[in-house]
């Protein structure tokens, strides 16, 4: 074929794919990653897989609204359809300028994703997509159009068809086919159809108006009214079943002015601004919330330091334990559930795996808590962005009507990372400091990924978007509703210019070859997803670990100066309280957290000293002198005398009683104190008896005995079997090393460039092997078309040896050790010892094949050699 000749039109999707270059194939596999898992053997198998129902459904679900509307219009158009027919269905008789400008891009997206093939004069929607989108009585088309005249009259008697044609003012014909064709031509002719409807009674036109935008079906009685009879006689309504009529597609299109959809949406809705503030104010507010988030997570983990709540038999946290945790954190239960899930997603808490299974902090928590606050926040933010667990579902019910619990099963939603990333990308497209309205964000997301079927206000993606906006504010990703600078850096958006219209886009401005679809420009964050498993199927590419690390470092650098500096002092007051006017250095906070109880939190934290808190510090191994020195060193005010007295009084009584294990015992050098304990009515439950003047035995375990004596006002100390005082530490319990839960991917991951190149090379080579013309051997065994070549062993050996001498490539059938058969194109270089060594064009490498596994061989045709 000369270079001036026009290539022939493809006859199938496989031929259309065969005509593509490698860049176009890579775009297809990137947009539809399920097609590359596993790698197809050739382009025919790739086309077959692209037409399977599961793959087509997934592809349709990732189209934006206008591209999906285009596919829906093609499903009701002729097969094949010319571009001009499609344009008429989308832009109508008035030729809407925005639709005219956007339609080439939508067609390009459908063609690129192998949902559409053929030249512009013969556009064909893949059969599976047409079946999914075409109207049926059980599943009306989203366009609201009914069947065509030809489809609606398929079961009608020839006599009745001739009656309709005559009533419509057409000449009768000799057969039903030509009569139906003439009727369809009448309904499609704007001038003649207008003339016919001008004769219709007003009541009949009202009936048509009610059906024109769908659903196109209606009910009639056995004796229809005159207004319906006029329409039925002329075929403007056609019977489909007893008592049911339908408006033919051609009639509806005439009344609609050619539109397949009532409201084509070529341009995505703009994300509207709710408020605009100075970026510095937004960053400060977000940093303040980030600090609160860190303090909340740390408080949660410290509350669970000695062993957290028990794990339910079915997994997760009981409602009672969640309520107790919420009270301890002074939060509502939904907010407490969010922080529990976030700590779990970040790998900070896990089950300890013991017989009495409980939740506890992981060893990673000790590493995390020692990091600078900005780095702590980045780790939490990344875990939230990549996680698929959805705290907003807690308290709801699963498909089996079981209540969903915090940390329990059933909370993973694979769409969560993509929705979070997309919401934040939309925020990044606004000017810095601008907060969007939630309604406009939801409208934009609904346009980008519309629901197929009846629209619902409570669909999962909308709920995920609402939760994203609220959770981002809690975590400090946003401040006062606007995306913070540190979050932009974490998204990789800091280096990208943006402005008021950066993410609004129009159908006319989009790239016709963009896999994003009509009117869906890429936001700044689209090019920097966080982890390979969080990238949606339409993401344009992947980032390297080095790029992710750079984004994290940039976020740390921006956030660190905004966080408050930790203090090394407190203010002691005479009412046995200490005021921390800001965050404290960790050693000071750790000791003060043991020595006193937190009474209130906020900009300043108030600690209260009580006999129980002082005893807790003494139990941890501190002496009274240690506590006096600690307070004197870290207080900017003099140590109040009441606090000094409190410490000395508790220390004087601390350890005077000793409790050990017998079942349990109490010993004390002061027998008068033991007499006092025995005489106390509150000690009855402990079932004490005297063993010696200084020893009491109890029928209770040491822990219960310690609690009972402390409830009576004593300050006992536990001792070991050697008689030494046991020192208890609050951070003693940790789970074994645990990894953070793996997100549940929404689908196969987007292949990287290396995998794409290897897959395309393998597909091309396999296609060459399956389609290359070949010359059969003279005495080749008869075979069916497409079967493996079959030649005798002698002919196979002779052909191979000849190919080594001539350097020509040959076509072989090969069966491997597992019994899998394949076709290959090889160039033999050596034949000896029952093996042939050859360059395998299919695998693009030199391989050695046992001759006994080669089913047959054939030379390639001269034009392929």
TrEMBL record:
<dbReference type="GO" id="GO:0004386">
    <property type="term" value="F:helicase activity"/>
</dbReference>
<dbReference type="Pfam" id="PF13625">
    <property type="entry name" value="Helicase_C_3"/>
</dbReference>
<feature type="compositionally biased region" description="Low complexity">
    <location>
        <begin position="512"/>
        <end position="525"/>
    </location>
</feature>
<dbReference type="Pfam" id="PF13280">
    <property type="entry name" value="WYL"/>
</dbReference>
<feature type="domain" description="Helicase XPB/Ssl2 N-terminal">
    <location>
        <begin position="570"/>
        <end position="692"/>
    </location>
</feature>
<feature type="region of interest" description="Disordered">
    <location>
        <begin position="495"/>
        <end position="540"/>
    </location>
</feature>
<keyword id="KW-0378">Hydrolase</keyword>
<feature type="domain" description="WYL">
    <location>
        <begin position="796"/>
        <end position="857"/>
    </location>
</feature>
<keyword id="KW-0067">ATP-binding</keyword>
<feature type="region of interest" description="Disordered">
    <location>
        <begin position="732"/>
        <end position="751"/>
    </location>
</feature>
<protein>
    <submittedName>
        <fullName>Helicase C-terminal domain-containing protein</fullName>
    </submittedName>
</protein>
<dbReference type="InterPro" id="IPR026881">
    <property type="entry name" value="WYL_dom"/>
</dbReference>
<keyword id="KW-0347">Helicase</keyword>
<feature type="compositionally biased region" description="Pro residues">
    <location>
        <begin position="738"/>
        <end position="751"/>
    </location>
</feature>
<dbReference type="InterPro" id="IPR032830">
    <property type="entry name" value="XPB/Ssl2_N"/>
</dbReference>
<keyword id="KW-0547">Nucleotide-binding</keyword>
């Amino acid at each position: 074929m000369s270079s001036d000749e026009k290539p022939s039109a493809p006859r199938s999707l496989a031929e259309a794919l065969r005509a593509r270059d490698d860049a176009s194939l890579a775009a297809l596999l990137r947009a539809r990653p399920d097609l590359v898992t596993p790698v197809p053997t050739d382009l025919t198998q790739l086309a077959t897989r692209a037409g399977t129902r599961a793959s087509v459904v997934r592809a349709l679900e990732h189209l934006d609204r206008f591209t999906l509307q285009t596919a829906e219009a093609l499903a009701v158009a002729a097969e094949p359809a010319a571009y001009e027919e499609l344009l008429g269905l989308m832009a109508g008789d008035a030729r809407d300028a925005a639709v005219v400008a956007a339609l080439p891009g939508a067609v390009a997206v459908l063609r690129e994703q192998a949902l559409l093939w053929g030249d512009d004069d013969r556009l064909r929607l893949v059969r599976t997509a047409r079946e999914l989108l075409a109207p049926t009585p059980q599943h009306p088309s989203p366009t609201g159009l009914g069947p065509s005249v030809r489809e609606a009259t398929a079961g009608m008697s020839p006599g009745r068809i001739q009656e309709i044609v005559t009533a419509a003012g057409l000449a009768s014909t000799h057969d039903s086919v030509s009569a139906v064709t003439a009727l369809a031509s009448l309904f499609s002719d704007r001038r003649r159809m207008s003339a016919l409807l001008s004769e219709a009674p007003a009541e009949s036109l009202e009936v048509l108006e009610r059906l024109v935008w769908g659903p196109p079906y209606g009910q009639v009685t056995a004796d229809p009214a005159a207004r319906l009879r006029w329409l039925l006689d002329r075929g403007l309504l056609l019977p489909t079943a007893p008592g049911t009529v339908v408006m033919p597609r051609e009639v509806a299109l005439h009344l609609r002015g050619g539109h397949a959809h009532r409201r084509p949406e070529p341009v995505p809705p703009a994300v509207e601004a709710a408020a605009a503030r100075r970026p510095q104010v937004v960053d400060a507010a977000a940093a303040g919330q980030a600090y609160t988030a860190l303090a909340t997570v740390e408080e949660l983990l410290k509350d669970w330091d000695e062993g957290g709540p028990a794990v339910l038999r079915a997994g997760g946290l009981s409602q009672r334990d969640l309520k107790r945790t919420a009270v301890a954190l002074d939060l509502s239960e939904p907010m407490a559930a969010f922080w529990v899930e976030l700590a779990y997603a970040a790998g900070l808490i896990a089950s300890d795996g013991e017989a009495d299974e409980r939740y506890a902090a992981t060893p990673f928590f000790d590493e995390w808590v020692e990091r600078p606050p900005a780095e702590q926040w980045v780790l939490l933010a990344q875990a939230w962005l990549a996680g698929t667990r959805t705290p907003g579902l807690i308290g709801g019910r699963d498909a089996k009507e079981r209540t969903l619990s915090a940390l329990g099963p059933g909370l993973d939603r694979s769409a969560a990372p993509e929705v979070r990333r997309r919401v934040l990308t939309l925020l990044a497209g606004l000017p810095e400091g601008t907060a969007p309205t939630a309604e406009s964000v939801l409208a934009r997301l609904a346009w980008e990924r519309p629901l197929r079927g009846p629209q619902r206000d409570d669909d999962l993606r909308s709920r995920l978007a609402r939760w994203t906006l609220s959770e981002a504010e809690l975590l400090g990703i946003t401040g006062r509703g606007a995306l913070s600078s540190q979050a932009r850096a974490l998204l990789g958006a800091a280096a990208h210019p943006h402005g008021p219209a950066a993410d609004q886009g129009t159908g006319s401005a989009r790239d016709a070859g963009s896999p994003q679809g009509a009117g869906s420009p890429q936001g700044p964050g689209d090019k920097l997803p966080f982890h390979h498993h969080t990238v949606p199927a339409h993401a344009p590419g992947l980032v390297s670990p080095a790029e992710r690390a750079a984004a994290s470092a940039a976020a740390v650098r921006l956030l660190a100066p905004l966080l408050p500096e930790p203090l090394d002092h407190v203010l002691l007051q005479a009412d046995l309280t200490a005021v921390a006017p800001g965050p404290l250095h960790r050693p000071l906070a750790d000791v003060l957290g043991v020595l006193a109880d937190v009474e209130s939190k906020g900009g300043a934290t108030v600690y209260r000293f009580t006999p129980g808190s002082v005893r807790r510090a003494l139990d941890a191994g501190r002496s009274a002198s240690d506590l006096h020195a600690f307070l004197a060193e870290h207080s900017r005010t003099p140590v109040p005398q009441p606090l000094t007295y409190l410490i000395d009084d508790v220390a004087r009584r601390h350890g005077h009683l000793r409790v050990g294990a017998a079942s349990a015992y109490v010993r004390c050098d002061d027998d008068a104190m033991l007499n006092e304990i025995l005489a106390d009515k509150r000690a009855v439950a402990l079932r004490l008896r005297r063993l010696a003047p200084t020893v009491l035995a109890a029928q209770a375990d040491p822990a219960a005995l310690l609690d009972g004596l402390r409830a009576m006002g004593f300050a006992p100390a536990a001792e070991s079997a050697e008689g030494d005082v046991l020192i208890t530490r609050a951070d003693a319990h940790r789970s074994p090393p645990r990894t953070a839960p793996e997100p549940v991917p929404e689908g196969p991951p987007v292949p990287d460039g290396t995998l794409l190149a290897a897959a395309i090379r393998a597909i091309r080579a396999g296609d060459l092997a399956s389609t290359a013309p070949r010359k059969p051997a003279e005495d080749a065994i008869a075979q069916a078309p497409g079967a493996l070549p079959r030649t005798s062993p002698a002919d196979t050996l002779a052909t191979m040896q000849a190919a080594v001498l001539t350097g020509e490539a040959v076509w072989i059938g090969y069966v491997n050790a597992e019994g899998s058969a394949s076709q290959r194109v090889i160039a033999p270089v050596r034949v000896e010892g029952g093996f042939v060594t050859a360059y395998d064009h299919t695998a693009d490498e030199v391989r050695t094949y046992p001759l006994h596994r080669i089913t047959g061989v054939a030379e390639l045709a001269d034009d392929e050699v």
